[in-house]
Amino acid sequence: xxxxxxxxxxxxxxxxxxxxxxxxxxxxxxxxxxxxxxxxxxxxxxxxxxxxxxxxxxxxxxxxxxxxxxxxxxxxxxxxxxxxxxxxxxxxxxxxxxxxxxxxxxxxxxxxxxxxxxxxxxxxxxxxxxxxxxxxxxxxxxxxxxxxxxxxxxxxxxxxxxxxxxxxxxxxxxxxxxxxxxxxxxxxxxxxxxxxxxxxxxxxxxxxxxxxxxxxxxxxxxxxxxxxxxxxxxxxxxxxxxxxxxxxxxxxxxxxxxxxxxxxxxxxxxxxxxxxxxxxxxxxxxxxxxxxxxxxxxxxxxxxxxxxxxxxxxxxxxxxxxxxxxxxxxxxxxxxxxxxxxxxxxxxxxxxxxxxxxxxxxxxxxxxxxxxxxxxxxxxxxxxxxxxxxxxxxxxxxxxxxxxxxxxxxxxxxxxxxxxxxxxxxxxxxxxxxxxxxxxxxxxxxxxxxxxxxxxxxxxxxxxxxxxxxxxxxxxxxx
Length: 479
Hints:
The chain is an alpha+beta fold. It is 38% helix and 13% strand. The strands form five sheets. The chain has a five-stranded antiparallel sheet.
């Protein structure tokens, strides 16, 4: 049978164990920890070496090639960077008991060695919280002497700030204008209504762009990114918009007047007779009756002052086309006189076909229908545009008969217009209207008092038409 294991006797209890205890020899390796006081105001703020050597470095204004024992949130701190140290007393100091340099002063490190970024290290301890009770120490261990010295250091946070240069800042802003000064006074001392009006104007306003320095190699100046985006979007949106010249050309084409020949070399080519009268109408007009009356020295009675004062000279000249133009002008004046008054500012009314034919019976039904269709369309009314178109055709015929220089007085009386209105109609066909000269007054046999009513309309090249009015941002109208 196997032998039973022998129980351990009391004699073996005091015997020395075969294994060594780990705590053996502690008494000979005791480390003495001390907190030496620092009387100098420059306490350690850097690591990786003995605090005494760092203490000497921090006494100078430049700290070179040192590493901060601080957090760098969002900043990649260079491995080698020279920084300047600054110190100021703390605003809130602790009690005098246990007062040290850390509790009485505050440090700041600054570096502008980087070409674009300024690095600033500050003490950002939380006041009144956990961070405010947390203290940081560095230890220096002397292995030979068995001493460990602990020294309190300053915890610092390094942050980077992009440096603003002259190119980014641009030139100095101009002083505030009188308008901004008035707005400021209105906001400070105005009533509620004026304050709301000023606030509504400035709420969505875009601040004026600060012009920057010219771009290298270009004459253009730099532009704010927001303004650049707005300008680019405006350019894309307005690329297909008509220019001012296009709008002027469209307005000229839609005006109630005969279409002028802008490439004409002589005034006679501006408004050709075939365009003013029409080839078919020219062939239908007969002038034999007028020629026979003039040869027989008989009076030709008309309702027009303009035609009556010129019929003798025009028929005597023997120019058949000119006589037909004068007769067509008389037809337009008679048709204009047969119109009934309509609503104020809304044109005229056309007589019924039978009554109109009866009133203009000497002209024949065919000519009357052509004039009615040309200037009234198929309606029974003549609107404002059609009436202006009729009067400008009459002005163009009148100035053609008088060799492109005519007295507006007779035509004004026939159309029952004011001086201002008849001058406007002649300007619409490109004529220049003004008072007669002394030689022209002597030829017309009128005095200075009558010259104001007897304005002369002259058709000369180049033609001058009224310009389209444009309303500016200030509310002013320009041509």
